[in-house]
Structures are given as C-alpha cells and as structure tokens.
Write a structure and sequence with these properties.
Layout lengths: L26 E4 L3 H11 L2 E3 L11 E3 L1 H19 L4 E4 L7 H6 L2 H4 L1 E6 L6 E3 L5 E2 L2 E2 L13 E4 L3 E3 L9 E3 L5 H5 L2 H8 L5 E10 L14 E11 L4 H18 L7 E5 L11 E9 L2 E12 L1 H10 L5 E3 L4 E3 L2 E8 H12 E6 L12 E6 L10 E5 L4 H15 L4 E3 L5 H10 L4 E5 L1 H6 L1 E6 L5 E5 H12 L3
Parallel strand pairs: 4-12, 22-23, 22-24
Antiparallel strand pairs: 1-20, 2-3, 5-6, 5-9, 7-8, 10-11, 12-13, 13-19, 14-15, 15-16, 16-19, 17-18, 20-21, 24-25, 25-26
Bound molecules: glycyl-adenosine-5'-phosphate (GAP).
The site of glycyl-adenosine-5'-phosphate has 19 residues, from β13, β16, β19 and α9.
C-alpha cells in the first residue's frame, strides 16, 4: 500500500504539500499486449462483452459507465473539431434508408469481401488477407491449402421493413454514414445557404457483416463512425485533399497521440474503394501492428452523380460568381469512433515502476502504478474527491465539493480504501486530478490537489480550488 501514514495517524499533519518529481526514477512501459487492456476495460467498467450472461455475442461490445462517458468525450472532441468551424455543419440521418441508395452508391454490387472456406478446419477467412503458396491460399487457422475458391460475400446486413418479409420489403442497415450526407446535400445546402467549399459532419452507427471481426473493438459488426464530407469545386479537390490530411493529423496530435505511433499510408491503385479517386489511411501502431484508424478519400463527384442518376433529381450546385452549374467533388474524412477510442486507450496506457525514494505514495520498495495518461478533455472523470478518513466532517466537506464540481465536470467521490489505493484506482482510469480532504483541511480550509501524471501535490484553499482545477483541466 502506498500512502506513508496510516489514516489513524493522519489527524495531526496535512498531506505532504509537494512531492518533487524531479528526483523520480520511474521506468515507463507502454501497452505490450491487447489482453491487458481488455482486462482493465472489463474490471474498471469501460467495456464489457455484449450479452455476457449468455456467453457473449461474437465481436459485439457494450460500453460500461466509464466507457460510455469516455466514448462520448471522444465524439465530442471530433464534433467540436468539425462543427465549430464556420464551413462545417452537422447532420444526424436515419440508419435505415431507401434501398435504392445502396444500389446507387455501389454497395449492393460492390461492397463485398472475397470469402474462402477451409475444408479441413471449417474456418472462414478473407482471401485478400491470407498468405498463399504456389498460387494456392493457406488457411490462417490450420495452415491447410485444402480451401474453396473465393466467392464474393456482401457485407451489408439485410432486414425487412413492415410485417411482410418479401423481396419488396428489404432494407439494409447502413454500412457507412456517408450516404445519409450525400442524399441530404441539397437539403443542407439550401437550408443553410452554405457556399462551396463547405462540409457536413455526422456521427452514427454503421453495420458490416465482417468475415473476420476481432482485436477487441477494433473490427466489429456494429460500430460508430465519425464522417465528414467536404464539398468542393472540381479542380480544387486535390488541394483540399492535402489540406484535410494536415488538419486531421493535427487533430490526432492535439488528442495527445504519440506521433511515433501514427503514420499516413497511401492506397495503391488496386486498393482504392470503388468510389475513390485517391485515398490515404491514417494508421496507428496497435499492439497487434499498424492498422487503419481513419480513411481520407477523394470521392470525386461519384456519389452525387450516382444519386442524381438513380433519383432523377438534380444535385448540382450553382456557383453564383462563375455563373456555372456543376456537381461538387467530395473530400471525405472517416474515422471509427470505437477504433479511435481503442487507439487512445492503447496509447494512453502505461505502467510506471516507481523507485522507493521517489514515491511518497509508495509503501516502500518498487511499486508499479498503471496510468491512463488521457488528455483531461477525454478522461471520463476529471476530478475525484477523496475524504482522507470516514470522519463525517471530512466526508461531508468532500461531498459538498463533489457536488459543486459536478455542475461543470464528470467527477467522482471515492471514500473506500486507503488513500494510496484510491490514487491508484484513479490513475488507472485516467482521472487527471484528485482532491483530498484531510484533517488539516478542517483547520486551514485547504485541500490537497494531486496531479495524475507528476503525482505532484499542492495545497489549495477551498475557495480557490474550483478555479484552480478549471485552469489545470483547460478543457476546450
Ligand atoms: N465512408 C467511408 C468509409 O466508411 P472505411 O475506411 O470503410 O470508409 C471508415 O471506414 C472508418 O470506419 C475506418 O477507418 C475505421 O476507423 C472505421 N471502421 C470501418 N469498419 C469498421 C469495423 N468493422 N469496425 C470498427 N470500425 C470500423
């Protein structure tokens, strides 16, 4: 246990006012395997397996109390980055859309993965992700080459609208949010009177019947996307494509990502989606390797032209200055919210081995603390209020401070266990600040504010503490 004094001794002196971290010799280790994070997420209420009491449902996940708040913070960071710009507006379109949308968009014919069955172990896998030898695919599960020819498998989930389950009632769960934006292009443009270039941003669920979901929340069949379609004049699209690459890179750095773990990866001609003229992925180095986090696409006028053709409605833009009509080009930025949340957790996770002489919270000897070094803006809980003991006066004061802080932020009141254990618990869920109410507080009206990353502790007067936290949290 990590606090040097027992709670019973604590009534004579305040918590140590300041711990010099300059002398700290913490050894820091990042996340090396996904399973460690999966366990933390379950134990601390970030993510649970869906329908766990029934044995779970493959690749479906539920966000718990901390996870749902964290994911909301991730969405808010994206929403603010997009819609606080003067040239971007928001949209929230329905998941179910007219079935012709998906014929026009190319998803009915083209949104397929090549599926292969292993005749020996019955595993199903994607032909484009498997290795081959002498021109024959190798089953990634058992290594057999006794496999079927690839056949195209459409990834869209089908369902029926209304009580009759016939061909005429088929609708699809959207596989991307983007189409809701394209079919609303004219509604949004005329209602907002936006001039090109302008963008439409949307956050919402998408569904894909993935052949090989996995790696926790990285690839699932139900997930949330955060997509922005930026409509531009043809001919300016390549410049805007470069501009958006830069803007999105800066966003990731602002979220606190380790830049060494981010990179751009261009799509080669054979890798481009059916709608794309050019594409770059932003990749993150997950514990299971470099993988796509976000796709940035130049979709040209593909989607609006297709919807114009299939709907018979003009989806042109009239440029009042040049006095000309044209179908705008679209630069798209598309990131999975669950995938971004996972990347942020992987990036923020660290284990610090603390040396004895450096850590006033340690019980002596080497001590490992797990920290989620999330930016305050993203942390599910911003401040935890900790009464040092169960003495009613301390609890009452901590409760009062908690209620005051809750008007501004998501906060916690943690009264159970020793103070060191409570600090560790808050470190593990990424809480940037703990405010400890101790016996001295009753005499001098000061509390101890403990910083998550430096473990620095400062005494702050009660009437200044909210302003102090506000400044330190610096939430945009
Ligand atoms: N509208 C373009 C589009 O949907 P995408 O590259 O297929 O492009 C965009 O998807 C992002 O959505 C991906 O970069 C990824 O972050 C997320 N995503 C896609 N499929 C996913 C899945 N099965 N599970 C979780 N996230 C997924």
């Amino acid at each position: 246990m990590s606090w040097k004094r027992s709670e019973n001794q604590a009534n004579s002196e305040p918590l140590k006012p300041l711990i010099e971290r300059g002398k700290m010799s913490a050894r820091i280790k990042g996340l090396s395997d996904l399973q460690t994070l999966v366990s933390l997420c379950k134990q601390r209420g970030f993510v649970f397996q869906s329908s766990e009491v029934y044995g779970g449902l493959n690749s479906c996940w539920d966000y718990g109390p901390l996870g749902s708040q964290f994911k909301l913070n991730v969405k808010l960071s994206w929403w603010k980055a997009m819609t606080r710009r003067p040239d971007i507006v928001g949209l929230d379109a329905a998941i179910l859309m007219h079935p012709t949308v998906w014929r026009a968009s190319g998803h009915v014919d083209g949104f397929t993965d090549p599926l292969v069955d292993c005749r020996d172990c019955k595993n199903r896998f994607r032909a484009d992700q498997a290795e081959s030898k002498d021109g024959k695919l190798i089953c990634p599960s058992c290594g057999s080459q006794n496999v079927t020819e690839p056949r195209n498998f459409n990834l869209m989930f089908k369902t029926h609208m209304g009580p009759v389950e016939d061909e005429g009632s088929v609708v699809f769960l959207r596989p991307e949010t983007a189409q809701g934006i394209f079919v609303n292009f004219e509604n949004v443009q005329t209602s907002t009177r936006k001039k090109l270039p302008f963008g439409i941003a949307q956050i919402g669920k998408s569904f894909r019947n993935e052949i090989t979901p996995g790696n926790f929340t990285f690839r699932t069949r139900e997930f949330e996307q955060m997509e922005m379609q930026y409509f531009v004049k043809p001919g300016t699209d390549e410049g805007w494509f470069e501009e958006w690459k830069k803007t999105r890179w800066d966003y990731y750095l602002r979220l606190g990502f380790n830049e060494q773990k981010l990179r751009f990866k261009p799509h080669g001609p054979g890798e481009l989606a059916h709608y794309a003229k050019a594409a770059f992925d932003v990749q993150y180095e997950f514990p299971f390797g470099w993988q796509e986090l976000e796709g940035i696409h130049n979709r040209s006028d593909f989607d609006l032209s297709q919807h114009q053709k299939f709907s018979g409605k003009k989806l042109e833009y009239f440029d009042e200055v040049a006095k000309e009509k044209f179908i705008p080009y679209v630069i798209e930025t598309a990131v999975g919210c669950d995938r971004l949340a996972l990347a942020l957790l992987c990036d923020a996770y660290r284990e610090e081995s603390l040396a004895q002489e450096d850590e006033a919270e340690s019980s002596g000897g080497a001590d490992v603390r797990v920290v989620l070094g999330l930016k305050p803006e993203l942390a599910p809980i911003k401040v935890a209020f900790l009464p040092l003991s169960k003495k009613p006066a301390l609890q009452e004061l901590a409760g009062r401070l908690r209620n005051e802080a809750a008007q501004k932020w998501n906060v916690d009141l943690d009264e159970a266990a020793s103070i060191g254990k409570r600090y560790r618990r808050q470190d593990e869920i990424g809480t940037p600040f703990c405010v400890t109410v101790d016996f001295q507080t009753l005499e001098d009206n000061e509390v101890t504010v403990r910083h998550r990353d430096s473990m620095k502790q400062v005494r702050v007067s009660i009437d200044q503490v909210m302003a102090y936290l506000d400044k330190q949290l610096n939430i945009f």
